[in-house]
Amino acid sequence: MEYLSNGILEIEIEPRGAELQSIRRVTAPWEYLWQGDATFWDRRSPILFPNVGRVWKNTAFIDGTTYDLQQHGFARDMIFEKIIDEDRHLAFLLRSNDDSHQLWPFNFELRIDYTLLRNTLTVGWSVTNRDTRPMPFQIGAHPGFNYPHYKADDEVHGFLSFNVSDCLVSTDIVPGGYAGKTTFDVKLPEDGLLPLTNNTFDCDTIVDATGRINRITLHDKDGRPMVTICHTMPITALWSPCGGRAPFMCIEPWHGCCDDEGYSGEFTRRKFVETVAPGATWETTYEIIIE
User: Fold this and answer.
1) What are the backbone dihedrals phi and psi of residue 88, each rounded to the nearest 5 degrees, phi first?
2) Looking at residue 229, what is its pLDDT?
3) Residue 218: how many CA atoms within 13 Å on its side-chain side?
4) What does the DSSP 8-state code read for residue 213?
5) Strands 194-196 and 205-208
6) What is the C-alpha separation between 257 and 39, in angstroms, rounded?
7) What is the average per-residue pLDDT within 66-83?
8) pTM of the model
9) Exposure winner among 3, 104, 160, 177, fewest CB in 10 A?
10) pLDDT, tens digit (0-9, with 9 covering 90-100), for 225-249
């Protein structure tokens, strides 16, 4: 386990998946990040690469060849090498290898940077194409955040607020974890606070692919802001298992999404696919702000 602190926040990262394991204030015992209780969900903040969500029947077609790609890809289960260990900055690198080539035919490097500045954790992603052909990919974040003072029978466990005030427009997720053909609106109350209840996620996942959402704040059950995520990605996904009957929820910025139901075309033609040229590097960041 790797540890980083700036005197205000302290975090822990596991080399397997370069996965964030803990976010705390130095002066307070509260753990912001979900701790992976398998009763609900055994992960904490996995990195989704080279696909976000499910490919149809777990089969990806690349240049006419089929590859077995499970939901959210394989990077979350591979060991990253620590390449930077500095004051307030850790970085990890995954290089393609014999194991990854069985699932993904490209030579690549995936770098994850964690940087602390005051009350903000910045997470950086860099995807470098070490192959001789353009490389398609998707990437996403999946951090879970604890509800403080959670009680299963509470009417409301917390609230979400956004940089928009009217509604979210969610893609319908059908059984199996695929995108349906319809959308539905999640209307926001006049005060802008969307209540999180035991039924909020009966729809499975709220997936807003309009590109309008770039700031999401989780509030406690009394309306006090706790955690804010800022990003510039085209998709924001919101999820909690058991329809919302869990002690945490996930706020997920995505460059990518699950396949449409029945899609069996080339991976390069999936929706929200990024492409990086040979020898080039694609980069982005998102922020986790502890309020």
Assistant:
1) 75, 10
2) 98
3) 24
4) -
5) unpaired
6) 26
7) 97
8) 0.96
9) 3
10) 999 999 999 999 999 999 999 999 9
- For 105, phi then psi, to 5°, come to -80, 5
- 10 Å CB burial of residue 8 (0-12, 13-18, 19+) is middle
In the numeric block, the tokens 């939901």 are attached to: 71
The answer to whether residue 29 scores a pLDDT higher than 90 is no
Q: Could you report how far apart the first and last alpha carbons of the chain are, in Å?
A: 25
CA-CA distance, 8 to 133, in Å (whole number)?
A: 44
The verdict on domain 2-290 having CATH code 2.70.98.10 is yes
Phi then psi for 249, rounded to 5 degrees? -145, 160
pLDDT at 208: 97
Q: What is the pLDDT of residues 157-199, one digit of tens each?
A: 999 999 999 999 999 999 999 999 999 999 999 999 999 999 9
Cβ within 8 Å of residue 171, ≥6 positions away = 179, 180, 183, 207, 208, 209, 257
Cβ-proximal residues to 194 (8 Å cutoff; 6+ apart), any chain: 159, 160, 161, 162, 186, 188, 200
Over residues 139-146, the mean pLDDT reads: 98
What token pair was written down for 227?
Answer: 């955690």
How many CB atoms are located within 10 Å of the residue 222 CB?
Answer: 10
Q: Taking a C-beta distance cutoff of 8 angstroms, is the pair 73, 50 a contact?
A: yes
Please state, in angstroms and rounded to a whole number, the distance separating the CA atoms of residues 223 and 22.
23
pLDDT of amino acid 46:
98
Tokens of 223: 């309306």
Please state, as a whole number, how many other Cβ atoms lie within 10 Å of the Cβ of residue 282. 17
